[in-house]
Each structure stands twice: as C-alpha cells, then as structure tokens.
Queue: 3 jobs
Job 1
Amino acid sequence: MTPRPVLWFATWTIAPHPDPDAEPITHAMQCATCGEKSLPFEDIEPAQLMALKHAGLTHHDVYREAITRPWRARPAEGAAR
C-alpha cells in the first residue's frame, strides 16, 4: 500500500497579537514627495516631528504614516489543528 497525502481545511481567524511579549506597534512617517522616512517609533510624536521638520526645510507637504502592528492567526474556535 502506497502512502497518500491527506489534505484538510480549517477555518482560521486573525487578530492583533494580544500577548504582552508581542513586538510593539510602531509608527513611521514618509514624505510622499521625496521618499525620506523617519525611523519607526512606538510613539507617533517623534515620527510626526520628523515630518514637520522635513516640511519646514523642503516645503514638502504630503506624508504617509506606516504602522507596523503584530497580528496572530489561529484556528477558529472549535477547529482542530
């Protein structure tokens, strides 16, 4: 008898990572005109300050915020692994 692979499907859910040891949520700002970026910070204020300083020096006035948030995928309640 030849072994055959078995495939099964389960429903999964995804949500922000709830554990205290999860990596932190970080914020960074990027100039949409020239692409200059701030470092990632856990607090948004240093990233915003970089954007304001950059705007004052360059008159670039459009920025993007990049948020990095850890997420965790798990089998849905009642689903077998």
Job 2
Amino acid sequence: MRFFIYSGLSVNELLELKFSDIIMLNDKDKNTTFEIEVGKGKKQRVIPLLKKRFIRYLNAHKELSICDDVVFCSKNKSTKMSRQTISKIVNEQLKYAGLKADVPIEIFKNSFAIFAYERGISDRKIQQLLGHTNIQTTRKLLNVRKTVTTKLDVADVFKEFE
C-alpha cells in the first residue's frame, strides 16, 4: 500500500507494473529514483522512492510472488491483481486504521500530487511525475492556477517518511 501511495502511479499502471519495468537510477544515498516504464505506450517516468524501503519491499515481494514478473500478483490465480482486489485491500487497511472505508482507489494518485504540491514541487514537475502530457490535466487535479515559487528536490519531500 505504501508503494501505491508514494509512487503517484494510477491503479492501471500499478496493476501492469512488472519487475522488469523497474530500473534503479541512483543508489548513492538512501533516497533514490527509479525509472519505471508504465502507462500508455510504456512511457518512461522517473519515480522518487525511498531506496531502503522500496528495495526491501521488492525483494520480499519478489520472493513471495507466484507470478514470474508481475509486481502485484493475485495469489489465487497466478496473474496480476484486479482493480477490485486492490480496492478491497486498500479499504480493509483504511478500516483497520480507523479511517473511512469505501474510498475510491484513484484518490491516492491525487493525494500524491497534492502532497507534493503542498511541499513546494512545481506543477510542471508533478506533471512529469504523474505522466500527464497536458499541464491542464495536472492543474485540474491540483485545482490550482499558479506555480509555487519554492522549488525542492522531489526526493527530499520523501525523506520525512524514512
């Protein structure tokens, strides 16, 4: 679930993600970026993630996976998970945490964008992170009209989660 929240990937991108789509770009410190080939036409995007947690998660997940290359695999069918399964898992976790359940799973991509924007990431950088071709799509999601003047390195935003 953390990967879902902190990656900014859409549900469909998450479900289509394969281990072979993930390329580590920078491994010099604990915060790093990964290149992920996702979305329409397998566009490449650089996703900032905490290296230590992400690698730990991937290694554990790959060992337990009964699918060859699919990151989010259904245990019952040896295939990728369905949207319904992801939704069920997310809502069970929210309920367990004492939060409102029955939240649309698309909210996590939106939350990622708003979280980054509130911490000073420009709408143009968020557009790149989300894989939007049109800045208006990003601005509509953020519901903002102006660019934040404070610029931060995207990886720095996620240091608070280490």
Job 3
Amino acid sequence: ARLLEESETAYNRERAGIMAAKLADGEPCPVCGSTVHPRKAVITTGAPGEEELKLLKSRYEKCLREMQEGSRILGEKTAELNTSVNHMLGACRSVLRIESVPDDTDILLGMIGKRIAECDEKLSELRAAEQDLKAGLDERYKCQERLKEIELAEAELTGAISEANEEKSSLSSALGTMEGRLQALSGSLSCKSLAEAEESLRKKKHQLAMLKDALKKAEEDYINASNDLQAAKTLLEDIRKRYDEAVISESEAFEKYSESMAACGFKDEEDYTAALMDESEVKLSKEKLQLYRDSMNSIDSELRRLEAETAGLEPQDVSLLEDMKNRISVEKDKADQTLRSVTARYLSNQRTENSIRQENEKRKELENDFLLISSLSKTANGELPGRQKIAFEQYVQAYYFNHILDAANTRLGSMTGNRYTLIRREEPENLRSQTGLDLDVLDHYTGKIRTVKTLSGGESFIASLALALGLADVIQSHAGGIEIEMMFIDEGFGSLDPQSLELAVRALNTLASGNCIIGVISHVAELKERIDRQIVVSKGINGSTVSIQLP
C-alpha cells in the first residue's frame, strides 16, 4: 500500500512531464492553450509511468483481496478454534467435575490422569460387582430349581402321607374288627387245651387243603368242560346252520333242476342221468354225500358225550371273583387315567418351562438392545440426565449456525460500528431445557457478554437483519449455482435511531450495489428520501392504487 501511495505521488508529481512529452510544436497545450512550447517540463529519472502505475494498482488490489480472504479465513479458523477450545474446556469441566479449568497444561493433564485412574478403579469395582451379581443370579436360579424340586417332593410326600393315613385308618378299623372276632372266637372254643386246639387246627387245615384242592380240580374240570361244551355248541350251531343252508340250497337247486329237466324235455331224473352222467360220477357224488352225513353224525355223538360228562357238575359262583376283577379293573383304569393326566401335566409344564426360559432369554436380549438403543436415542434427542440437552438435529444446526453467525457478524460489525458480535451460547443456563441455538451478544464497549434479549428494539432489528444477510451469504457459498437475487425487508426501520438507520441503509446500499435487488416495505419518511426507486401504494375512496416512481 505504501509503495502504491509513493508511486501515485511520484506519478502525479511527474504528470506535467508526461503531458509535455506528448506535446508537439504547433499543437495547443491542453493546460494553457499555447502553441509555442519554449520550455517543456522534463520527467524525473525513475518516475513511474502510467502502465507501471496500473500494474501496481492491480497488484495492490489483488493483495488486498488476498488479505481480506485471509482475514476472513483467519476469522473462521479463530472461531472454530475458540469453539473447539470451548468444547474441550466444557468436556474437561464435565469430566473433572470442576467449575473452572486451570491455565497450566501440566496441572490439567495431571488432573485428567488422576481422573482416568479413578475411572479405571471404578470400572474395576463395577466389573467385580458385575461378576458378584452374575454369581448371585446363578445361585438364585439354582435355588429356584431346588425350590421347585422341593415343592414337587413336598406334594408327593403330602400325597403319600394322606395315603398312609388312609391305610392307617383302614388297618385300625380292620384291627378292631379282628380283635372283636378274636374275642368272639375265644368264647366259642371247644378245645380244652392249646395242644388240642393246635391238633384240631392242623386237621382242619388238612381238610381245608384237601377241599381246596378238590374245589380247584373241580373248577378246572368245570372250566375245561365248559370250554369244550361251548366249542362243541358253537361247532354244532355252525354245522346245523350250514346243514340248513345246504338243505335249502338243495331244495332250491332240485326245483331248478326239475324245472330245467322239464324244460329240456326229460321225464324224470333217471332219464336225465341216463342222458348226461355215467355210473362212476353218480357213485362219487353219493360217496361225498355219505361222508357229509357221517360227519354230522360224529358231531352229534360228540355233543351228546359232552352233555353227559357235564350233566353231574354244579356251576360254581364266580361272581365274587368277577366283582373283584371289575373293582381292580376300575382302579387300574383310574390309576392309568391319573398317570396319563399327571404325565400330560408334566409334559405341558415342561413345555411351558422351556417356553418361559426361551422368552426370558429373548427378554434379556431385548432389554440389552433396549438399553443400548435407549441410550443412543437419549443422546440423539438430548435427553441424557445431568448433561446438556442438545439434540442431534440441534447439534448439526449449530454447526451451520456458526457459519451463519460468522457471516452475520461481518454485516453486524459494519452496521454497529464494530460494537456488537453475536455468539452462540455454549453453556446452558440449566440442564433441564433444550439448548444449542441460543444467542448472546458481545458488547465490545464494555467487554461483557449478555443475552440478546437485552438489545433495544433498533439493535434487535439490526441483529435480525445481519442474521438474514448472513444466512443469504452462507446459502450462496454452500449451494453452488444458487444466488440470492432479491430480498424484501418488511418494517422494523421505525424503531431505529438516526445513526442506526444510516448504518442499516448503508449496508443495504452496499448489498444492492451488486446483483441483488433489495425491497424495503416501510412507512418511515427518511427511507422515502433515501430510496429513489419506489412502488407507492396509496389509499383512496375507490380502494388502493399503485404507482411506480423512478429517478
């Protein structure tokens, strides 16, 4: 810049010499108009020429643009650095649980190392507690299984005790009955001594055994005879049935045979036999018939023999045995039914237990998945207890919001005389409400940061205008091919003081000097004087009218 100023000064100082170098005799001087040039001005050696001056200006403008771009990048990097530092300091405060972070790096690293050691120790304790908890849970499951076995054994013992009590009662009753019978028998004894009683008992037992053997043999003979008789009766009935059927068939066949012989012109059977059969065939048929009749006679004889053998036998009463058999069969059916019912319940309970175990494993897996997803969801939604309430959307928005603030602060600085700078609030007022996009303002006059709610109406309008312009700048820089060509601002200028109004209008004029059209909707008279192109809306009796005013 200084070289350019010196070159411009030298160029202006040597401008007369430059003009004189172009003068020719007889041509009028552009300054005095004389056509005679007795003493022309001389260019000093080393003075810059016009082309050299233009080159210096071009280099200066290029350096100026590079410096502005570097300044902008420096501002962005400084803001990013400050943000990273603030994030790091916030993380240190959160991890170390302190209100302020020491400036000494060694002290800070020592505190962090101590905190890491504490966390490792706590993690070891938690892992040990987790192992104890797992061991306790395993022991609990074993105890539950043992309790189930004990409950089943208790139920079985209860049933056995009930059965034993019933059997005890039955035996007690039987014992009483036997004692009564013993007393009755003792009174009716005919034996005078124990030896006579034993001898009499021995004889009675011998007689009883003989009678039992005879009864058993008679029962066996009766059963065998009954079986043989029943088989013979069945066979006889079958033979009689077959015989009757054969007689009927023979009668029907003979009738058909006679009808057929008559239809064929035979007088009788002999005439037919003489015509069709020889003697040997007739003999064979008669032999077969005779064999059949002999078989019938044999069966009748066997039937008569069996009836004669069983004629003197008396039927035995087996109703008591049948009743006992029926009772035992009923009890067996009940026991089988009970066994099937208990087996079905056992299998059903076993399937239910397996199903419950499977569902319990699924529930544990779902609980683990839920804890992981719930923690991730709370982190993404900004709902972690004891932490800043920053949702994922707000975190992403805050990243772009910082770029908007950087662009807005460039506008705000020019409109407020570099007094205010907008800052995104990093630390929330409390840990209960959502944060991340709240704004504070840095007042460079006082050097303090305060909330934007403390700005006046005019200052709030200027800040809003700066944010809108910053948003437009960010959109144009991030979205290639998109350019903000028109912007409308509705009201807000009436709350500005003259100085703020002048700064705002100057910023809008700067923006409008490019390719962007700025439209202002306002009732402020000062703006009407400052803006030469206007669309005026006037009210009238017949409604509103629109007129366009151009310079």
